[in-house]
Write a structure and sequence with these properties.
Blueprint (H helix, E strand, L loop, with lengths): L12 H38 L11 H19 L1
Length: 81
């Protein structure tokens, strides 16, 4: 009866450290993608002022701006992962 308990799950120190580093790399990647999305959205807005043949990006509406940044962030994450 004493030996009928389930075995403990064991992880080495290297596995624990690797898991922490993978999470850190993912967080840094998401932050970099968000920054790139912000920069890209503002650059696209500035570019649309001088070009009439591209689709307009209207940043006057806050909801549209947030939606554009979220779409751009998702695009960057798909590109880098």
């Amino acid at each position: 009866m004493m030996n009928s308990t389930a075995a403990r799950f064991k992880m080495s120190k290297i596995e624990k450290e690797t898991n922490k580093q993978i999470v850190l790399v993912f967080i840094v990647q998401v932050i970099c993608c968000f920054i790139a999305a912000l920069i890209g959205t503002f650059m696209q807005y500035d570019l649309n002022k001088s070009t009439t043949y591209l689709g307009r990006v209207d940043l006057s509406n806050a909801a549209r701006f947030v939606l554009t940044v979220v779409k751009q962030t998702g695009t960057w994450i798909l590109i880098f992962t």
